[in-house]
Specification:
This protein is mainly α and 131 residues long. Helix content is 78%, strand content 0%. The longest helix has 28 residues.
């Protein structure tokens, strides 16, 4: 579990470096940079999901049949803040778009999801209290 949190911390650093190094135009014009953004966000969201579902199961926080329910269980049991839970649940929707490619994702919108790094950082801080 701690290793997964360390991976998430590393991803946060990498995503922040990406946003500092590349403007949205750079991402739009370079498929490798776009891929880095996509994969960095996807992996970070997936780590958050994995940790949430693990904690929900390990500590019997409630039945969870979906990723969203794992996050909701953490929020209901006060492991994470309500606003953080809301933002992470929204991130699950992005994860589904990235992995299943239901629709073409607008690069501007994708770039705006770099703000999730703040939520990932909050998640790490709040979850570490219980580990």
């Amino acid at each position: 579990m701690l290793q997964r949190l360390e991976n998430l911390e590393e991803n946060i650093v990498n995503l922040n470096n990406l946003s500092k190094k590349f403007a949205i135009e750079d991402i739009r014009n370079n498929k490798l940079d776009e891929w880095s953004l996509r994969y960095g966000l996807f992996e970070s969201i997936q780590i958050t999901i994995d940790i949430s579902c693990h904690i929900s199961s390990k500590y019997n926080l409630g039945s969870a049949k979906t990723y969203t329910q794992c996050i909701e269980n953490l929020e209901k049991q006060k492991y994470i803040d309500k606003n953080l839970a809301k933002n992470l649940i929204s991130a699950i929707g992005l994860r589904n778009l990235l992995i299943h490619e239901y629709v073409k994702i607008d690069i501007d919108q994708l770039y705006s999801f770099l703000k999730l790094t703040d939520d990932f950082r909050c998640f790490i801080r709040e979850i570490k209290e219980y580990l």
